[in-house]
Give the backbone structure.
Amino acid sequence: MPSGLIALLDDVAMIAKLASASMDDIGLATAKAGTKAAGVVIDDTAVTPRYVTNLSPERELPIIWKIAKGSFRNKLLLLLPAAVALSAFAPVLITPILMLGGAYLAFEATEKIMEKLLHDHEHQAELLQADTAQELEARQVSGAIRTDLILSAEIMAIALNELGDLTLWEKAAALALVGIVITIAVYGVVGLIVKLDDIGLHLSERRDAASKAFGAGLVHVVPKLLTALSGIGTAAMLWVGGGILLHGMEELHIAEAVPHFVHDTAHHVYEAVGGGGPGATLEWLTNALGAAVVGGAIGWVIAMIVRRFHKHPEELIVD
């Protein structure tokens, strides 16, 4: 009897160790996957604040909460089961799906750049059709959740691609953790960003000089911060989208000369500066720039095709 009890305790201890190791693996895989998805996360954070523009300040946080709930549903109820099923039954499709997402990111970034250069404002034109504040809010939330679905799909696909040899349940746990952490981080930061001007205004009305100066500085800086975030998000989309496309080309042996040229150029830059820290930084920058150029080229082709068949923004405006 005692030996049986000891054996049982040994088994329990072994299971606990395996569970602990599994949790460590899940944590490491989650961190790695989250790092890989960083570019998409930056864009997600940069994109979302525009969905609360032109709405009353008291509705900003409730709207962000609605979008966040939609993001949780996107990731945990739609994309997580799809990703697990894909990993179990059709892993060969992961790279092509990643490439489709990368092409979409490149297209979105290129479209933003073209809108700036050509002074198109399709998003604003569509919103002009809203008759009431409630309808405008509903359109904003719906549009944000649609955008989040695409960005979340890319985040989950990138994460899934980084989970390697984990078991199916470990992949599911890691993906769920990635989805939860990223959603909280993104919409927590977005909530803070959109309220920074209100915080600055409140501080600027205080009596002490330090608070007034800090508040006035916030009010002055926030619009520039939002503009900078938009630019960073666009650059991240080009870099991440192009990088995914280059990786997919290598994996699927499609136009391999393109990724090889980018990587070889980056390596030559590394050697030209003598390696080390500066060399590694310049190598990374060269790879990122090459990925952005590839993403921009593919995004431009897609944008031109879409614009050829899409109604011109001015036709959406109702007099």
